[in-house]
Amino acid sequence: MPYSKRMGRAARSRIRRKVTAAARSLARGEFRDIFAVESGGSEIDGDVVRILRSPAGYAPQGETQGWQALQRKGQRALRGRVTRVPEGQLSLEDLGLSISDLET
Amino acid sequence: MSASLAITGLEREDISDLLSDAMIGRQRGRAGLPFRVGLGTAKTFAIEVNAPDGDPDRAVARARDLLVHHGLELATTSDPSVAVAWSESLGLFIDVLDPRFWLIHSMSNAARVQRLLHALVWRSPDLDWCWFSQDVLNRMQGDGETRWFRSDFRGDELLAGGPAGARRLKVQLEGDNAEELLRILQRSAAYQSSAALTTVALHLANPDLGYVDEAAHYRGRFVARGDSFALHLGFVSRWVQEYAAAVRKAESDHQIVWHRVGDSDAFNYSGRTAMIRFGRPIKSLDHFVASLFSCRDPFRLWAVPRPSRGDAIEAEVVDLHLGQQLRMDITREWLRVYLPEGACGNTLFRLVSNLQHRYDATIAVPS
Fold first, then answer.
1. Looking at the complex, does the CB of residue A56 fall below 8 Å from at least one CB of chain B?
2. How far apart are CA B246 and CA B104, in angstroms?
3. H/E segment holding residue B334
4. Tens of pLDDT along A40-74?
5. Long-range pairs for B341-345: beta carbons < 8 A, 24 or more residues apart
6. CA nearest B45 in A: which residue?
7. What is the DSSP letter of B52?
8. Smallest CA–CA separation between B27 and chain A, in Å?
9. CB B111 within 8 Å of CB A102
């Protein structure tokens, strides 16, 4: 969390509670097959997010679409709307990945 | 019949304008084309087609044989060195100005084009990709400002048994001066052997032509976004021409050719072996040669290796690209290639660039 060390203890706790509640809500709803929020146990102060499924494990061609689908899912869950990418325009990353090897 | 199709009045310059418009989302009239060009990014795939005494007419005829067999139709244009080919889902512009090193341009889906070309290259012994070495990809960055790069080192097969960190390295970075991190990896003793540059993306601009963000992959693939197909083509042509010259020079320098001395029974030879030195010694030679000669993509080599003097291994190798035979000597520190007369220089570049991505990124192309 940027600048968290400059905040007071109460402000830090408030933000932490908000983030935890949002993560739990997403893990129960839109992202239930993507990640889970679990207790950190005795070793970790607070909760931990366990990744259940990630586009990082996909083949390179599918990986980009996987991340984009995840982004749209997040936008739907948080704001209820989807940002449209202008037709034909790719990010630099998508541009480079579009010519990656298919067989991997 | 596809064999007789011709699109008259379509010149090379028209195609360049058509593709520039398509890059910025403007679909002009079809210019007599029997397919929809598509909009978005311009892709170019460089393919080596090994044929003796090639000329554009023969190259177009070979393209027709290959593509019609895969369900595409082909038509010639007013430029004898440019043909167009299409199917329901694909449109290709085939530039055979150099009849041996083809440029295949397309605005169609990159994965679809790549799938088609992969099938063509794998099934046709005269076809191969153009294999850019680390040195070439590094130098390409000098043409513009590097904005993104990807390093994807896959040593799982050739380095089996080594530490996991050395077997696999995947780095991707976007930002101004993105190459600085790559330089740090390439200078690091721990990572330099695995820091193989796979794709580089740079920004190119020209006050007269426009701009493109250009990505180049080590297997001779290019893709550009922006507003100038001419700028994209200029970049691609420069590096493919340099590659073609390097392949021809390798053939001239490293093909071992025997000559009879006068009318006598004596022979001498010209050409010298190509020496590939490893930055890190091979731990298990048996495992290394078994993986190298497995017939599989990307090396496409088959051999029955046999022990030689000391720790060395010698092998009569069949290059599945052209079905040609060549000899290799392999030790823990180096690999020596004997290219016979008529052998394809592309074999050497395929070997080096894949060893750079699968064994040691610091290997240099033999000079």
1. no
2. 20
3. strand B334-340
4. 888 888 888 888 888 888 777 777 778 877 877 77
5. B341/B255, B341/B256, B341/B257, B341/B258, B342/B255, B343/B251, B343/B255, B343/B319, B344/B48, B344/B50, B344/B128, B344/B247, B344/B251, B344/B319, B345/B246, B345/B247, B345/B248, B345/B249, B345/B250, B345/B251, B345/B254
6. A99
7. T
8. 12
9. yes
Cis peptide, bond prior to residue B99, ω within 30 of zero: no
The Cα–Cα gap between B291 and B281 comes to 16
Residue with tokens 């493109």: B212
More confident call, A42 vs B331: B331
- Which pair of tokens denotes residue B265? 């029974």
Residues B347, B321: contact at Cβ < 8 Å?
yes
**What's the pTM value of the predicted model, to 2 decimals?**
0.79
Entry field: residues in chain B: 367
- Structural tokens at position B269: 């030879």
Residue B47, pLDDT > 80, answer: yes
Contacts of residue B198 in chain A, CB cutoff 8 Å? 100
ipTM over 0.90: no
Per DSSP bridges, beta strands B255-260 and B91-95 are: unpaired
List chain A residues with CB under 8 Å of B223.
95-96, 98-99
